[in-house]
Amino acid sequence: MQRKALTRGFEQAEFQARTEKAQALMAAQGLEGLLLLTEPEVRYFSGFNTLFWQSPTRPWFLFIPAAGKPIAVIPEIGAALMRQTWIEDIRSWSAPAPQDDGISLLSELLAPLAQRGARLGILKGHETSLRMPLGDWERLVQALPGLQLTDATGLVQGLRMVKSQAEIEKLTHICGIGSATFDQVPKQISEGMPLEEVFRAFRREALAQGADDVPYLVGSAGPGGYVDVISPPSRRPLQMGDVLMLDTGATWDGYFCDFDRNFAIGAADDAARRAYDVLWRATEAGLAAAKPGNTCRDLFQAIQSVIAELDDQGGDIGRLGHGLGMQLTEQPSHAAFDTTVLQEGMVLTLEPSLGYGESLIMVHEENIVIRAQGAELLTRRAAPELPVI
Amino acid sequence: MQRKALTRGFEQAEFQARTEKAQALMAAQGLEGLLLLTEPEVRYFSGFNTLFWQSPTRPWFLFIPAAGKPIAVIPEIGAALMRQTWIEDIRSWSAPAPQDDGISLLSELLAPLAQRGARLGILKGHETSLRMPLGDWERLVQALPGLQLTDATGLVQGLRMVKSQAEIEKLTHICGIGSATFDQVPKQISEGMPLEEVFRAFRREALAQGADDVPYLVGSAGPGGYVDVISPPSRRPLQMGDVLMLDTGATWDGYFCDFDRNFAIGAADDAARRAYDVLWRATEAGLAAAKPGNTCRDLFQAIQSVIAELDDQGGDIGRLGHGLGMQLTEQPSHAAFDTTVLQEGMVLTLEPSLGYGESLIMVHEENIVIRAQGAELLTRRAAPELPVI
């Protein structure tokens, strides 16, 4: 299938805009720098795009100064690729080097801030991790007395939540590819097919439809429904009466779709049909509530009020949707605790789930972008009734 | 292509043996527990296998006590899958919960150790990261005064380096699939094909050959050679005289192959042929040196001495191979700094690289297992001369 040829990467103006927005917020919060260690954050501000992060061996650092372009402190193996981005100041070392994996380069860069007791933003809040050895982090902090480490999680997550038009184009593209892939599922699977072959066929089809990759594919199948929503495939063959769920995060140019579809094999029982109907209508309620000015909590409650017809627990996956972009899941969370106000340009999943029968769980998911008038679907809406293959 | 049907997962005895070996080492080092946060470590001791770790939202914890089975402290969304493993004590909470994402459950579990001033092993050394919010980590440590945090990186990495026969079977399987996939490359690509289509064809073929997934695929192509070894694909069409390199980490049942192949498009110039020949012979030197009792440094020096014929820098990727298993790259490193002694059952890459011409780099890689007599290839050996397509 041929789709419009999008340009890979972004114009330099995109990175400049991201950086300047961060710097305006940094100034308002009294931060003289921001130190980033994680793949999406480094990529967001630099354009550095590689799967090499899967190797845990080397740490990578991007420093956002109060003004000017970011500075990369990275292993030499990445320097050639970083030189293709808009970053000019690239400081590299021959890594791995267990005795000094970038720590002295980083200390040198940050020493002036430490000497004047400046505030440095780091990511230490919800949904973050420290993507370097904790021992090296402790050594770095000890080497820089005076530096005031300040949590800048909200600053960075707040920026990343609202997508640019160029980002939305990439997300629209991959959601279209995901939808076209799910459309082919009924032609590709049948009773007797082992689940691992179902997964393999789905992955191959997504690539044929134009995905770069399918980093995330989980799912389950069982009589009348499934008990788990994050499993790798088993070798169990699909059986008449199974409900099959596939949940995929496919990527194009580093941006994810994240949605699932349910299929009944041969026939569907009433309990599964009923659960599906409730979830479909819960998603409708979410679509109606997903407009600028409402909060994630509002969205959660709109979805939850429909789920409660059948189940007051909403399954137990902890939230009913989330942000989507360079990662499979991003901030915010559609949950009672999240009062983030929805804004134009946010790309979100709506993901109602419920428990039914004996320990069965059903999930349902769509991807949307928030526009001035409300939700715009990026995925082709799931069928209103549980499809039977 | 049909291969021997291997069993997915492991017998319970495998996890028991891993746990008991860890506990023996813990006893020797005076550790009363081991706290693990990262995917490969949690999977290694529990068998918990899911791609859901790609979502950064939730932390996961596995505690190895001084005796008995590991204890899982995990988000509720993972409890159903964890109940399918050998783990019995599963403590879960409804996550995400920014105010308390498992911290009070974990504090309760660790409080007895803290009260008696016990030593708790954590991973804070080379090649590790802290896969939870740093802020939550600091709160946990503050809540447990008296607990002596001790680096157990060497303990865990030392265990994981030496593979069991069941692990070697999975690694042999995926390396066979990777080799069969590379064998098809000459039939699938040709001058004029954009690099992104080369990548897509490779991924589809690897799945057809039986891979579960191809999480890692990087590569480059350019006139006479390439300048970067970790790039995503561009849309540039392959041209006569290009050297194309593809480097893949494909997976089966959670185990990786990691190797690359080079191809000349239409014709190869002398410089590329010469670089290829040196790398091929450097790998031969590595194969000869890869036997029990030699160190990683010995292996490094054996490979480096051949590379030095053409280039005394060995490219600049920092090492000439590494461990391989549940991750694309694992300990140890074939580098001058690594004095790890090679043992039977270690699965390794041999990965010579060199710089040549004007800023060109060439890489070459094979995967091996160390046997009593020396190296056994898991990959089908690369052709001795640069293949021309």
Describe the model:
The structure is a homodimer of 389-residue chains. Chain A is α+β, with helices and mostly antiparallel strands and 389 residues long. Chain A has 2 domains: 12-160, Creatine Amidinohydrolase, Chain A, domain 1, CATH 3.40.350; 162-377, Creatinase/methionine aminopeptidase superfamily (Creatine Amidinohydrolase), CATH 3.90.230. In chain A, 34% of the residues lie in helices and 22% in strands. Chain A is built from 10 helices and 17 strands. Chain A has helices at 12-28, 39-46, 79-82, 103-115, 134-143, 153-161, 165-188, 195-208, 270-289, 296-307; strands at residues 33-36, 61-65, 71-75, 89-93, 119-122, 148-151, 213-223, 242-252, 255-256, 259-264, 322-323, 330-333, 347-350, 353-356, 360-363, 366-371, 374-377. In chain A, the strands form 5 sheets. Chain A has a 6-stranded mixed β-sheet, sandwiched between helices. In chain A, strands 7, 8, 9 and 10 form a 4-stranded antiparallel β-sheet that branches. In chain A, helix 7 (165-188) crosses helix 8 (195-208) and helix 9 packs antiparallel against helix 10. The radius of gyration of chain A is 23 Å and the shape is elongated. The interface between A and B is large, with 81 and 81 residues.
